[in-house]
């Protein structure tokens, strides 16, 4: 293992920038992520999340700026970084014609030179992640949730200090996602591993210690979920249930005193400058159009509201 350098941050970047031709995929990114933190990296498609991860893993050279991972320089010490990190890429490469155990054997041997240590770690993972009965099954035959779990196992079999996970739960069912997150929390809390996770699932973002929101390569918010919510959502939010959601949506979308309105199932989330006056405006509009108000109350913003608000605002 590479020695761990004294550095309070697991990950730090300074003016990290990457261009592809005219596209600035990552634009002047400054991040500091403490050891042991669960950091959620959010942003719409094409925002620059995977590009950031690739630079942090020492796979892609920055165009400008730089950073450290585990105390090692991402430009000059990529080989040392590879020894302290695990990386589960967006389309992680499991070998579909290898069994569960053979996949784990491959990845453990990639990082650990000593055969017996590799075998020991692999057995430990098979045990703790519950692969016992699937050991000899081809990975191609696993369900989506188990494939992701195996991909995670392959990324942590060498016990990295810092783990990069690029959309680890994309496309798997809610129960499998919970299971995967339980494993991630265990890695963070009991092994002290720093997690850098990208996700499009807002309830997962809500569970991170810190989240960064990237938009067109720029970091537009970075803090704990509660601080981001209170800082970003300086406006207030109302929840409306009514007799005609479509009509209400159309009316409110056009109303000048309403900042934003979004449909959530059979409810509308309405962003207003101030809850009490906003509620009066909404009631007046609904009365005027003959829409019955079943419920209208102020609610706390979720990370999803913040995500939508930041994306629209930018
Ligand atoms: N190798 C490349 N060559 C050219 N352009 C690239 C390359 N890799 C990424 N890009 C561009 O950089 C931008 C950021 O892409 P990136 O894959 O980092 O986004 P992302 O946030 O991971 O998106 P998603 O949520 O869809 O995974 C996009 O405009 C993308 O087209
Ligand atoms: Mg990506």
From TrEMBL:
Stretches assigned to the ABC transporter domain: 11-241
Statement: the UniProt record of this protein carries the keyword Hydrolase: no
InterPro entries hit by this protein: AAA+_ATPase, ABC_transporter-like_ATP-bd, ABC_transporter-like_CS, P-loop_NTPase
A Pfam family reported for this protein in Swiss-Prot or TrEMBL: ABC_tran
Keywords on record: ATP-binding, Nucleotide-binding
Gene Ontology molecular-function annotations: ATP binding; ATP hydrolysis activity
Protein's recorded name: ABC transporter ATP-binding protein
């Amino acid at each position: 293992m590479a020695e761990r350098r004294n550095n309070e941050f697991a990950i730090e970047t300074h003016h990290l920038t990457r261009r592809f031709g005219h596209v600035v995929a990552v634009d002047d990114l400054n991040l500091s992520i403490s050891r042991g933190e669960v950091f959620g990296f959010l942003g719409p498609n094409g925002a620059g999340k995977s590009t950031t991860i690739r630079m942090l893993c020492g796979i892609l050279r920055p165009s400008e700026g730089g950073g450290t991972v585990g105390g090692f320089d991402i430009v000059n010490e990529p080989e040392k970084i590879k020894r302290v990190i695990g990386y589960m890429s967006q389309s992680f490469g499991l070998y579909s014609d290898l069994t569960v155990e053979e996949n784990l054997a491959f990845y453990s041997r990639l990082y650990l030179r000593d055969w017996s240590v590799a075998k020991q770690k692999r057995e430990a993972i098979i045990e703790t992640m519950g692969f016992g009965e699937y050991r000899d099954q081809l990975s191609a035959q696993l369900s989506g949730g188990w494939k992701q779990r195996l991909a995670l196992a392959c990324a942590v079999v060498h016990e990295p200090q810092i783990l990069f996970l690029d959309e680890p739960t994309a496309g798997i069912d809610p129960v499998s996602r919970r299971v995967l997150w339980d494993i991630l929390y265990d890695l963070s809390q009991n092994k002290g591993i720093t997690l850098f996770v990208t996700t499009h699932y807002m309830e997962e973002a809500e569970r991170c210690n810190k989240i960064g929101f990237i938009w067109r390569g720029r970091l537009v918010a970075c803090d704990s979920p509660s601080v981001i919510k209170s800082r970003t959502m300086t406006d207030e939010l109302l929840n409306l249930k009514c007799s005609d959601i479509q009509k209400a949506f159309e009316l409110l979308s056009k109303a000048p005193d309403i900042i934003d309105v979004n449909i959530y199932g059979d409810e509308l989330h309405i962003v207003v400058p101030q809850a009490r006056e906003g509620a009066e405006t909404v009631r007046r509009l609904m009365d005027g159009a003959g829409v019955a108000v079943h419920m209208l109350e102020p609610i706390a913003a979720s990370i999803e509201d913040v995500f939508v608000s930041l994306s629209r605002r930018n």
